[in-house]
Amino acid sequence: MFKAMMDERYRMAESYSGADRFGNYRGYYTFEEKDLMKKKLHEMKNRDRRAYDELMYEFEGTNKHSRGYSEHFTREEAEMAVHRMENVDGTRGEHWSFEQAEKFINAYKLDIPYIEYADFYYLINMFYSDYKRVFEKLGININKNYGNIECICDRIIGEKIDFEFPSVGATENAILASCLAEGKTLITNAAREPEIIDLQNFLNKMGAKIKGAGSSKIEIEGVKKLKDVSYNIMPDRIETGTFLCLGAINNSSNIIIKKADSTHITPIIDKLEETGCKINIKKGKIEITSPKKIKAVDIKTMPYPGFPTDMQSIFATLLTTAKGTSVVVENIFENRYKYTQELIRMGAKISIEGKTAVIKGVRKLYGANVNATDLRGGAALVLAATVAKGTTKIENIEYILRGYESLDKKLMKLGVNIQTKL
């Protein structure tokens, strides 16, 4: 039985988000939803009356043009109310991002999951597309109940699985579920990332029968059991790319990365060379030397072997100080530009239109209090902080540490003045 447990507080997300139970936005909030929000806001009445009064103006059902009650208030009006909250340091700003406003909510312990529901429903909907189809094809029953997803079956039966999009996670889960299935499984339009090959090699060493990883077609013949093994996993190509970009963003610097595989990051190396960086590849080592000023380049994320989506935010941060204007196009995931609002606070010039980000290079970034919105977005802020004038404080570093082992120690070896505190 496979069971994915979600945080309990997400069970309340539907009540505040203006989204129905399938995660679809209605664009407005009902009075019932509004009343639930008001209950939470009443908790702050005795703590900060001024902020409470201003917030209640929006949540009482008024619109932006009058104090008369409307049948509902829009999502935009609710956002305005959140943005008008005071930060913990007493400053104000109607231009705040949701992530910045969340600091205020957390400081007053309002426990409003309004900020976080979008990512939650995105993950649920992603699971309920490719993942759901994969598991159901293999005979696994899917049950969803608020924040819980349960995958239950008596046995797994091999089947043909055809992906509409070559999803890495869905391909990996299909392989994992099929290696102990009864019969054969054929996966077509599979993801071709190096991690898929590494997973195949690992499972085959355990006794699985898998072939084809690295191509669009993977065949798995189920076995009855797997054995314990010792296995050295491949180098993290995204971490390698991150440190290469760290070398590139720090003008006239030189970094050597050991135990790296350059064949896994060809698109990243190509783009770094376009910016004017010099790359020297030796066996198991990659050396980067950056120019005094990098040049602007355009990137667009694509499935492997294209430019990786996990490097989008990191490379975009590099381009904030490039000479000229760069265009970044995100073709893999939606809502992956949240980090740009934090970079803008540091002085970056970035405009977003749909899946496209236009970045006008600036001479300098400036230290600020910023918030890691996700793993790669957080890593991007670390890169920006290394060249920013002044001190940068990054909140929610748990996101970053989840994907970068001993990041602070590695940065200190390179001369970065960094302190981490959980």
Question: How would you summarize the topology of this molecule?
Answer:
Elements: E1 2-5, H1 13-17, E2 28-29, H2 31-42, H3 49-59, E3 73-74, H4 75-83, H5 98-107, H6 117-137, E4 141-145, E5 148-152, E6 160-162, H7 168-178, E7 184-188, H8 194-205, E8 209-211, E9 217-221, H9 237-249, E10 254-258, H10 266-274, E11 278-282, E12 285-289, E13 299-300, H11 312-319, E14 325-329, H12 339-345, E15 349-353, E16 356-360, E17 369-371, H13 375-387, E18 393-395, H14 398-401, H15 407-413
Parallel strand pairs: 6-7, 13-14, 17-18
Antiparallel strand pairs: 1-5, 2-3, 4-5, 7-9, 8-9, 10-12, 11-12, 14-16, 15-16
Helix pairs in contact: 2-3, 3-4, 6-7, 7-8, 9-11, 9-13, 11-13, 12-13
Summarize the model shown:
By secondary structure, this protein is α+β, with helices and mostly antiparallel strands. The chain contains 15 helices and 18 strands.
